[in-house]
Design brief:
Arc Repressor Mutant, subunit A; DNA-binding; Dna Ligase, domain 1; alpha+beta; three-stranded antiparallel beta sheet; 42% helix; 2 domains; homodimer
DNA sequence: TTGATTGCAAAGCATTTGCATGCTA
DNA sequence: TAGCATGCAAATGCTTTGCAATCAA
């Protein structure tokens, strides 16, 4: 926080504390996985992160990355996210503002957004039904500006791009 | 629409038309599956519907139910929904108002709701980012009134109920 | 008769787990 | 040294597909 260079000292501290509190152990693998996770801003699947880690230490296995991501989630450093392609992704969670996602169904682009008005209305709706809201998940699916433009140019011609998210009448994907 | 008894004539008509337009065929299995789907108000997985169908005709297989649900979705009669337990559920879609879901993470109760204000705000957010909104999915997760009460009574004692939805820091499940 | 439909079995795919070995505290 | 962590391989759970037999049009 005091330097421009991101050394993620705070996050590493949080991780250490979580490990201590839970009676777990520090390992080189966990450190490396955390480091690479923090360095990478995109949404990562366990598989994605595995390959990034693999580049730096090919002895680390899928399972360890998978289990470490769960651990990071427990520690409050990561958050699981799903975009509808059947995989689980992880994003940074510590000191990150709550936000929702807008996903382009054509190119898979993910935009994070936050709307205080929507948040307030969700609380209101929950209260109306006697629910105590603990979490919510909202995704807006559509076409991003670029894909919209491209679609107009092609004007109906089949695009070669493989959509990341298949959407018909699907909700909650 | 003209009688109190629900014979689902309109829905069956829609299905027939879809089948004809697509060059598909009428079968006894499809009729039975549609009939039972329409009769059942709850959210059904392919597996759930299979068992209901099985009770009336044990010769119908999983695959047919699975494929017929896809077909009903294509025909606009059903909509896929996911609640976060890894399964795909289906709900009635024809002549049903768009709605979102509020899910109790303790007992799995699902409440459908609709908020025009939230809908409008979603459009607004999408427009801000240059997105053309095609679908959205919003789920509010929390504790329903009953579970909230029960939790207070037990006051921290472990409840025996198996939560249908495991939620920690999960979004988009 | 033609070609869509069915249902079994098996394949896919991502996630999760059992277990022997390795390593931290 | 005790017991948590690792990584391989295999199991799981749900979804999807190949294929031969069946059936609608």
């Amino acid at each position: 926080m005091t330097s421009v260079k991101k050394d993620f000292e705070t996050e590493k501290q949080v991780f250490s504390e979580h490990i201590q509190k839970a009676g777990l152990r520090h390992t080189a693998q966990r450190d490396l996985i955390l480091e690479i996770f923090l360095r990478t801003e995109e949404h990562l699947s366990s598989e994605d992160l595995y390959w990034l880690v693999h580049k730096e230490d090919s002895s680390v296995g899928h399972t360890t990355v998978y289990r470490t991501l769960k651990l990071l989630t427990d520690a409050g450093l990561a958050r699981e996210v799903r975009f509808g392609d059947g995989k689980t992704y992880y994003e940074h969670h510590y000191n990150h503002e709550h936000h929702d996602h807008m996903i382009c169904t054509e190119c898979g682009k993910v935009v994070e957004f936050f709307s205080p008005e929507i948040e307030a209305l969700q609380e209101k709706v929950a209260a109306e039904y006697g629910f105590k809201l603990t979490h919510h998940s909202m995704r807006i699916l559509g076409l991003c500006e670029d894909c919209l433009t491209r679609e107009k140019e092609l004007n109906g011609a089949a695009s070669g791009a493989q959509p990341r998210v298949r959407v018909k009448s699907v909700v909650g994907i």
